[in-house]
Amino acid sequence: MQIHEKLKVMRLCRGWSQEEMAEKLGYSANGYAKIERGETDIKVDRLGKIAEAIGVDLQQLLNLNDKNVFNVIEGCHYDNGSHGNILLTETQCAHELEKYRLLLQERDKEIANLHQQIAQLKEINALLKANAST
Could you give the residue ranges of the DSSP H alpha helices within 1-134? Predict the structure, then answer.
């Protein structure tokens, strides 16, 4: 993963748009977008400023690799005591994805059940209306 890709992932994990990130850095939105697309070379001082805005140290940003995913979880503590930063391994991410996949399956079952109940209630309502009119 190249540095511009890491920056995009970390920004998205924060839930920030490119415009919001650019504003935090004092850059134009277009200028920051070029950084994320890898069209602009990033000097160390700019990279440090970006890391600071994201809330990580420069070394952490540079050490982030394909086996780690930067994930922001509110109220969480990382080794350095900062709030909101946690690094998950590929295995941990796979486990979290599976957990959420199962939750989504349960949600879909519940939605199907509710649709069935609505259909039954509509039938009951139609029968009651038919009986009331006779």
Answer: 3-14, 18-25, 29-36, 44-54, 58-63, 90-133
Residue whose structure tokens are 């070394």: 59
Q: How many domains does the chain have?
A: 1
**Residues 5-49: tens digit of each pLDDT:** 888 888 888 888 999 999 999 999 999 999 999 998 888 889 999
What tokens were used for 88?
């998950």
The answer to whether position 132 is within a domain reads no
Which domain range does residue 52 map to? 3-66
Instruction: Output the domain CATH number for residue 29.
Output: 1.10.260.40
Q: Model pTM? A: 0.49
Per-residue CA distances from 60 to 44, 65, 69, 110, 130 (Å):
14, 10, 12, 42, 70
Rounded Cα gap, residues 104 and 111, in angstroms: 10
Q: Partners of 83 in the beta sheet?
A: 77
Residue 52 to residue 25: CA distance in whole angstroms? 9
